[in-house]
Amino acid sequence: MCGIVALIGSREAAPQLLEGLRQLEYRGYDSAGIATVHQPQQGAAALHCLRAEGKLVNLTARFEAQGAPGLCGIGHTRWATHGKPEERNAHPHLDASGELAVVQNGIIENYRSLREQLQASGVLFRSDTDTEVIPHLLAGQLRQLQAKGEPASGALLLQALQQVLPLLQGSYALAVVWAQTPAALVVARRSAPLLIGLGEGEFLCASDTPALAGFTRTILPMEDGEVALLTPLGIELYGADGGRRQRSPSLLSGTEQVVDKRSFRHFMLKEIHEQPETAALWVARHLPEDPGGHLVALPFDEDFYAGVERIEILACGTSRHAAQVGAYLLEQLAGIPANVFYASEFRYSPPPLSAHTLTIGVTQSGETADTLAALAMEQERRSLVADPSFAPRLLGITNRPESSLGRLVPHLLDIGAGIEVGVAATKTFLGQLLAFYGLALAFAERRVGRGPNREQLKTLVVGLRAMPQQLRQLVEEHDRRCAELAHRFESTQDVIFLGRGINYPIALEGALKLKEISYIHAEGYPAGEMKHGPIALLDARVPVVSIAMPGKVFDKVLSNAQEAKARDAQLIGVAPGGKDTEIFDLLLPVPEVDELLSPLLTVIPMQLLSYHIAAHRGLDVDQPRNLAKSVTVE
Ligand code: AGP
């Protein structure tokens, strides 16, 4: 949430800052700003700050008109937490003298009391943000240090920041420039990501890797509590205790390509079309013809599987829906009790501790604050128990192995879907589902006798190997079909999505996709639950999308669909064609497969229906209002 960039070197900073912000715009896009420090050949250096409400193009236009010279600068693209999305709340925020500028991603939880103290001492605030306390606090600290005769320098700015940070509660990643030090900037992080990219005689700091990928592949991820001073000559890194730290940089893996829409109208559509490839890569990696005596090849040794008696899964949003499918598979295939929790709820009301438990965090970005905090909390409370059967066993499922999640957990399943830019998750959802199929099969084959036999598991593997081809056909077909249908939803205000069993989470995901990008109210329900209340909502104006795939609950779902039809609802079936499914007014056909594999297919019409309804309404599909791709605040 919110993207930040900072650059120092020997070239004009603003163009690179704007390019970095372009790569980070998916993190927030209600306003943007940059501040640069320019040292003219003669005279004092000066700070240049440009800010604009709305998308980055507005800031770019302002830069083209006004310029922002300087070899050192910071930038920000905002997702509003405190204060409306207006220019006066856009970052950077300045101190009263206009010499200090700060960008921040996170939340300063105690900003109210800090603000009151500053106001009492005469400071005037120009925004409603939590961030604005930082430049004012820093300015006060610098004044005190300079009053003792300390000359302005990068070291002084660093010292002032180190004195201010303990006053801040909450999570943040921030960057600061000061007109009095045109060849220095300082950055800091606590519980929010920040990485330093090492270029040739220049350094770029950013809150996420896409901003770095086009600049350098040599990176230094900052660790929690660290502060750094960046000059054109190098980096000085310090821990929260003030001690100097030395660490070797690492290389960005190949997945963080500079993002490109190709010929697609939106990133979301491109990413939906990339799903067959996501599945093909996953099959090639994890279901090779000879995975060494096992059915599935996962990067874990036997100790990882041994003695797991319970699984708890923590996730948010779409990742949580993938986790629900995962829990179904782990229980039904491997016979391991599995529970899914909203990460944001788990942290404050965790269940009683259970022994021999594997905790899985699912987050495509690897940066979702709620999921990371819940995992860290679980790790800590388990570490405090003397009985070794309660010891933490953590696994992360992510698309970003280099993320904070990657540094938090000892075991990682990288879904390898390639960067996803559309705010609405699509190919990463499919990747997460596939990760759970792999995991459930791997546990199941080690626990044969408690669930399906090995032959049944082998049949599922054959089905999974066929997925890339089935997905290819399905995506093409439904792209056309949903584009033709979209106009029928012009005046729709509510949609109900029904599913049962393993397809219930897909109904939830269908509803979430539609809400996120089309702003149509949508609810996902277990089909059998409709008659216990929600059926009261139905009439001819409320379409009902029913996922009816042959298997255990096929007849039940069809009966539930009939109940909706009897209330005049327009029925849309996500189901195979044939006599049984003639009850549907509209059919989004999906080929019949083993019911356990069906979510991999039924999600496709859900994604494409939502996409085309939103695109037909002319909405900003990739950057829907109020949302951000990666939610790094609690
Ligand atoms: C997905 O379409 C949403 N934008 C959102 O629900 C998302 O899945 C959620 O914020 C979790 O993100 P994560 O997977 O990066 O943790």
Briefly say what this structure is:
The protein has 634 residues and is an alpha/beta fold. The chain has 3 domains: 3-251, Aminohydrolase, N-terminal nucleophile (Ntn) domain (Glutamine Phosphoribosylpyrophosphate, subunit 1, domain 1); 264-465, Glucose-6-phosphate isomerase like protein, domain 1 (Rossmann fold, 3-Layer(aba) Sandwich); 479-634, Rossmann fold (3-Layer(aba) Sandwich), CATH 3.40.50.10490.
Structural features:
18 helices; Rossmann fold; seven-stranded antiparallel β-sheet; alpha/beta; eight-stranded antiparallel β-sheet; binds 2-deoxy-2-amino glucitol-6-phosphate; 25 strands; Glutamine Phosphoribosylpyrophosphate, subunit 1, domain 1; single chain
- What is Rg? 26 Å
- Uncertain runs are none
Enter the CATH topology name of the largest domain: Glutamine Phosphoribosylpyrophosphate, subunit 1, domain 1
How many H/I helical runs? 18
Structural class from helices and strands?
Answer: alpha/beta
Helix content: 25-40%
Bound molecules: 2-deoxy-2-amino glucitol-6-phosphate
CATH arch. level architecture of the largest domain: 4-Layer Sandwich
What gross morphology would you assign? globular
Strand order of the largest sheet: 3-2-4-1-10-9-11-15
What is the CATH class designation of the largest domain? Alpha Beta
What amount of the residues lies in strands? 15-25%
Please state the average pLDDT score: 93
The description of the largest β-sheet is:
8 strands, antiparallel
